[in-house]
Design brief:
Structural class: alpha+beta
Strand content: 15-25%
Largest sheet: 8 strands, antiparallel
Distance between the termini: 22 Å
Helix content: 25-40%
Number of helices: 15
Number of strands: 19
Shape: globular
Length: 477
């Protein structure tokens, strides 16, 4: 349980001006309120402030700062690192702030920071529009966007953060700020890929694009015996693929009895999946080569509603299962890299784990690196290593498998990572400096301006110049 006990008088004073709910450790809904998606996370905050609006967020930030509290910020609660909750501190919970407003003529969306991508897709698809989101609809908008945002429309329309027009946030001193290309442009630059370092984001304004309601999709499974062959064919395919195509591969056992015949359900497989951001007819032709690499175990490719494709993997990542994910940007898919992907897939201790290869390039690569802090535009591929398992007694071997794979695969990378797949952020400042490279110092200067005491530190943290040992923090999920 939490060690830090706030005097009842202080909490009562805070509650007077707070319109949301304050949840304490002895409240009946406390355990539900402190729970997050990753079952490995079991933390006990001293207080959870469930906000209803910006005024509540300002009050919560001021209360935390004035009382020297550790702070976590909960958006969707889906971040794999689990930093939406903390021990012995204050959780600023935005989960009730889920409003989405669409202007279909201007092709814009205004989204509150507690929304998930399912909330956004539901509203935007009513008008045949979308903005690039993630690959699981239950993911929170805030965490994904602030870390960059690699989703199913990335090669055509870029990262989620590339589609931002403005961001509303509350800074460490309790000030409400709107950042855009015209207002606080340096802050706007840092928010697009720099994580939750600079304030508690309360809302986003996004550009929208014509997508759906149906899209052409690919989802084909091949035998693990053909994995190297499939990865070579995939490498050749994406080298000349249309920018409308965004695909990835997933390698693992993936033991789904509803999808596969009993004689192969427990065998290693490689899946290739993706969608086409254009007409269904053009998309079916463009994706067809991915379905013809070898004799498939199963092929579920075909047109489907965009909303359904966004939800395709939701059931594979249920709340409460145990997760440990890390990543590396790859400089290519060489023969040696393919051999090591095959090896690490074969030795995964959990049949639910996968080694993934995300196609990048297209609009991601074409964007001006000076427009955002996001640091992964140079790479043609992203390697995602996802350990997914059920039993606490299997924690160590699954974590060790991911770390061993990453250590090995660094020979094919400059060492930079996608900060939304960061493990438990255990590499700290070293990971941040390696990933951001020469832009890191610009982020430090921004941190010095907006959060010099590092109130917001439970995140992919940029340590301010004079606060390397600061105690206090926050992170969006």
């Amino acid at each position: 349980m939490a060690q830090h006990v706030l005097p009842a008088e202080q909490i009562e004073q805070f509650e007077v001006g707070f319109h949301g709910d304050l949840i304490r450790p002895d409240d009946v809904d406390y355990d539900d309120a402190r729970g997050v998606w990753n079952g490995m996370i079991d933390k006990h905050p001293a207080l959870i402030a469930r906000c209803r609006g910006v005024g509540d967020v300002i009050s919560a930030v001021n209360f935390a700062r004035e009382n020297g509290l550790l702070v976590a910020v909960r958006g969707g609660g889906h971040n794999v690192a689990g930093t939406a909750v903390c021990d012995d501190g204050l959780v600023i919970d935005l989960s009730e702030m889920r409003g989405v407003r669409i202007d279909p003529d201007a092709q814009r969306a205004w989204v509150q920071a507690g929304a998930t991508w399912a909330d956004v897709d539901h509203e935007t698809q009513a008008f045949g529009l979308a903005t690039p989101g993630g690959a699981v609809s239950e993911t929170g908008v805030a965490g994904l966007t602030l870390g960059g945002g690699i989703g199913h429309l990335r090669c055509k329309y870029g990262l989620t953060c590339d589609n931002l027009r403005s961001v509303d946030l509350v800074t460490a001193d309790g000030t409400f700020v709107t950042a855009s290309e015209d207002e606080a442009p340096d802050l706007f630059w840092g928010l697009r890929g720099g994580g939750g370092n600079f304030g508690v984001v309360t809302g986003f304004e996004f550009d929208l694009h014509p997508v759906g309601p149906e899209v052409a999709t690919c989802l084909v499974f091949y035998s693990g015996d053909r994995m190297a062959e499939c990865l070579r064919a995939y490498r050749e395919y994406v080298a000349s693929a249309s920018v409308e195509v965004s695909t990835l591969t997933l390698s693992g056992v993936m033991p789904d009895e509803e999808l596969f015949p009993s004689d192969v359900v427990d065998d290693t497989k490689i899946a290739i999946t993706g969608c086409y951001a254009g007409s269904v007819e053009d998309g079916e032709r463009a994706l067809a080569p991915l379905e013809e690499i070898a004799e498939p175990i199963a092929d579920f490719s075909g047109p489907m509603p965009y909303v359904d494709y966004q939800q395709l993997f939701d059931e594979d990542y249920p709340d409460g299962m145990r997760y440990y994910w890390k990543s590396l940007y790859l400089d290519g898919l060489s023969e040696s890299a393919i051999d090591r992907i095959v090896y690490w897939t074969d030795v995964a201790p959990s049949p639910l784990s996968t080694v993934d290869v995300w196609q990048l390039g297209g609009a991601i690569e074409r964007a001006d690196t000076e427009d955002s802090a996001f640091a992964g535009r140079h790479a043609p591929f992203l390697l995602g290593v996802e350990a997914n398992w059920e039993r606490p007694e299997d924690d160590d071997e699954n974590v060790e498998w991911v770390r061993g794979c990453l250590d090995d695969m660094r020979q094919f990378s400059d060492g930079s990572v996608y900060l939304n797949f960061p493990g438990f952020l255990e590499e700290g400042d070293d990971m941040m400096r390696t990933t951001f490279g020469p832009t890191y110092e610009r982020l430090v200067a921004l941190k010095d301006e907006y959060d010099p005491a590092n109130l917001f530190s439970l995140n992919q943290n940029i340590t301010p110049s004079e606060s390397a040992e600061a105690d206090g923090g926050a992170c969006h999920e």
